[in-house]
Amino acid sequence: MPESFVSGLSTQARHKVIELLNENLADTVALTLAVKQAHWTVKGRGFIGFHELLDEVADRLREGADLMAERITILGGYPQGTVEAAAEKSRLEPYPTDLEPIESHIEALKERFMAVGEKLRKAIEASEDAGDVDTGDLFTEVSRQIDKDAWFIGAHADAT
Question: What family is reported (predicted)?
Protein backbone atom coordinates (compact mmCIF):
# COMPACT_ATOMS: atom_id res chain seq x y z
CA MET A 1 0.00 0.00 0.00
CA PRO A 2 1.37 3.45 -0.86
CA GLU A 3 2.12 6.12 1.70
CA SER A 4 -0.80 7.62 3.60
CA PHE A 5 -0.99 11.34 4.22
CA VAL A 6 -3.56 11.03 7.00
CA SER A 7 -2.76 10.55 10.66
CA GLY A 8 -5.07 9.35 13.38
CA LEU A 9 -6.79 6.61 11.35
CA SER A 10 -6.01 2.96 11.87
CA THR A 11 -4.89 0.87 8.93
CA GLN A 12 -8.15 -1.05 9.18
CA ALA A 13 -10.18 2.18 9.03
CA ARG A 14 -8.20 3.42 6.03
CA HIS A 15 -8.73 0.11 4.20
CA LYS A 16 -12.48 0.23 4.90
CA VAL A 17 -12.83 3.82 3.71
CA ILE A 18 -10.69 3.21 0.61
CA GLU A 19 -13.05 0.34 -0.24
CA LEU A 20 -16.09 2.61 0.22
CA LEU A 21 -14.50 5.31 -1.91
CA ASN A 22 -13.65 2.89 -4.71
CA GLU A 23 -17.18 1.43 -4.71
CA ASN A 24 -18.67 4.89 -5.06
CA LEU A 25 -16.03 5.96 -7.57
CA ALA A 26 -17.06 3.02 -9.80
CA ASP A 27 -20.71 4.03 -9.52
CA THR A 28 -19.88 7.66 -10.31
CA VAL A 29 -17.80 6.73 -13.37
CA ALA A 30 -20.63 4.47 -14.59
CA LEU A 31 -23.18 7.23 -13.99
CA THR A 32 -21.02 9.74 -15.86
CA LEU A 33 -20.90 7.41 -18.86
CA ALA A 34 -24.68 6.89 -18.66
CA VAL A 35 -25.16 10.66 -18.73
CA LYS A 36 -22.92 10.94 -21.78
CA GLN A 37 -24.82 8.10 -23.50
CA ALA A 38 -28.04 10.02 -22.94
CA HIS A 39 -26.38 13.24 -24.15
CA TRP A 40 -25.40 11.56 -27.41
CA THR A 41 -28.69 9.83 -28.15
CA VAL A 42 -31.53 11.92 -26.70
CA LYS A 43 -34.23 13.12 -29.08
CA GLY A 44 -37.48 14.93 -28.69
CA ARG A 45 -39.08 18.09 -27.47
CA GLY A 46 -36.77 20.06 -25.21
CA PHE A 47 -33.74 18.39 -26.77
CA ILE A 48 -31.25 21.24 -26.75
CA GLY A 49 -31.82 22.28 -23.13
CA PHE A 50 -31.60 18.68 -21.91
CA HIS A 51 -28.61 17.93 -24.15
CA GLU A 52 -26.71 20.93 -22.73
CA LEU A 53 -27.77 20.12 -19.15
CA LEU A 54 -26.30 16.64 -19.50
CA ASP A 55 -22.87 18.04 -20.42
CA GLU A 56 -22.93 20.18 -17.28
CA VAL A 57 -24.05 17.21 -15.17
CA ALA A 58 -21.24 15.04 -16.57
CA ASP A 59 -18.72 17.74 -15.64
CA ARG A 60 -20.03 17.82 -12.06
CA LEU A 61 -19.93 14.03 -11.82
CA ARG A 62 -16.29 14.07 -12.94
CA GLU A 63 -15.56 16.60 -10.19
CA GLY A 64 -17.09 14.27 -7.60
CA ALA A 65 -15.14 11.32 -8.99
CA ASP A 66 -11.97 13.39 -8.80
CA LEU A 67 -12.60 14.18 -5.13
CA MET A 68 -13.07 10.49 -4.34
CA ALA A 69 -10.02 9.37 -6.34
CA GLU A 70 -7.80 11.98 -4.70
CA ARG A 71 -9.04 11.00 -1.23
CA ILE A 72 -8.19 7.36 -1.97
CA THR A 73 -4.64 8.40 -2.85
CA ILE A 74 -4.38 10.63 0.24
CA LEU A 75 -5.42 7.65 2.38
CA GLY A 76 -2.71 5.50 0.81
CA GLY A 77 -4.78 3.54 -1.68
CA TYR A 78 -5.12 3.17 -5.40
CA PRO A 79 -8.16 4.66 -7.13
CA GLN A 80 -10.01 2.15 -9.30
CA GLY A 81 -11.35 4.67 -11.80
CA THR A 82 -10.88 3.02 -15.16
CA VAL A 83 -13.80 2.13 -17.38
CA GLU A 84 -12.88 -1.53 -16.87
CA ALA A 85 -12.98 -1.16 -13.07
CA ALA A 86 -16.28 0.70 -13.28
CA ALA A 87 -17.76 -2.01 -15.50
CA GLU A 88 -16.68 -4.68 -13.04
CA LYS A 89 -17.47 -2.91 -9.76
CA SER A 90 -20.37 -0.58 -10.40
CA ARG A 91 -23.56 -1.49 -8.58
CA LEU A 92 -25.74 0.34 -11.12
CA GLU A 93 -27.96 -1.30 -13.70
CA PRO A 94 -26.35 -1.05 -17.14
CA TYR A 95 -27.61 1.97 -19.04
CA PRO A 96 -29.55 1.10 -22.19
CA THR A 97 -27.76 2.17 -25.35
CA ASP A 98 -30.89 2.19 -27.52
CA LEU A 99 -32.96 4.87 -25.78
CA GLU A 100 -33.92 7.98 -27.72
CA PRO A 101 -37.03 9.68 -26.31
CA ILE A 102 -36.23 12.38 -23.79
CA GLU A 103 -38.78 11.01 -21.30
CA SER A 104 -37.10 7.59 -21.37
CA HIS A 105 -33.71 9.16 -20.67
CA ILE A 106 -35.12 11.31 -17.88
CA GLU A 107 -36.60 8.27 -16.14
CA ALA A 108 -33.53 6.05 -16.65
CA LEU A 109 -31.15 8.73 -15.40
CA LYS A 110 -33.34 9.76 -12.47
CA GLU A 111 -33.46 6.14 -11.26
CA ARG A 112 -29.67 5.87 -11.40
CA PHE A 113 -29.09 9.22 -9.71
CA MET A 114 -31.43 8.18 -6.91
CA ALA A 115 -29.59 4.86 -6.52
CA VAL A 116 -26.19 6.56 -6.37
CA GLY A 117 -27.48 9.11 -3.86
CA GLU A 118 -28.72 6.32 -1.61
CA LYS A 119 -25.39 4.49 -1.79
CA LEU A 120 -23.52 7.70 -0.99
CA ARG A 121 -25.66 8.28 2.10
CA LYS A 122 -24.84 4.76 3.31
CA ALA A 123 -21.15 5.50 2.65
CA ILE A 124 -21.38 8.67 4.78
CA GLU A 125 -22.52 6.64 7.74
CA ALA A 126 -20.06 3.79 7.14
CA SER A 127 -17.05 6.09 6.80
CA GLU A 128 -18.00 8.00 9.93
CA ASP A 129 -18.49 4.68 11.77
CA ALA A 130 -14.94 3.77 10.69
CA GLY A 131 -13.73 7.02 12.27
CA ASP A 132 -13.16 9.06 9.11
CA VAL A 133 -15.49 12.04 9.30
CA ASP A 134 -13.50 13.83 6.60
CA THR A 135 -14.44 11.17 4.06
CA GLY A 136 -18.00 11.33 5.41
CA ASP A 137 -17.96 15.05 4.61
CA LEU A 138 -16.65 14.32 1.12
CA PHE A 139 -19.47 11.83 0.52
CA THR A 140 -21.92 14.45 1.83
CA GLU A 141 -20.62 17.02 -0.65
CA VAL A 142 -20.90 14.58 -3.55
CA SER A 143 -24.34 13.35 -2.49
CA ARG A 144 -25.70 16.90 -2.34
CA GLN A 145 -24.66 17.46 -5.94
CA ILE A 146 -26.08 14.07 -7.00
CA ASP A 147 -29.40 14.99 -5.37
CA LYS A 148 -29.41 18.40 -7.04
CA ASP A 149 -28.69 16.91 -10.47
CA ALA A 150 -31.39 14.26 -9.92
CA TRP A 151 -33.75 17.19 -9.35
CA PHE A 152 -32.51 19.06 -12.45
CA ILE A 153 -33.00 15.95 -14.59
CA GLY A 154 -36.31 14.92 -13.04
CA ALA A 155 -37.76 18.43 -13.14
CA HIS A 156 -36.90 18.67 -16.81
CA ALA A 157 -39.73 16.23 -17.50
CA ASP A 158 -42.21 18.93 -16.52
CA ALA A 159 -40.83 21.26 -19.18
CA THR A 160 -41.21 18.85 -22.07
Answer: Belongs to the Dps family.
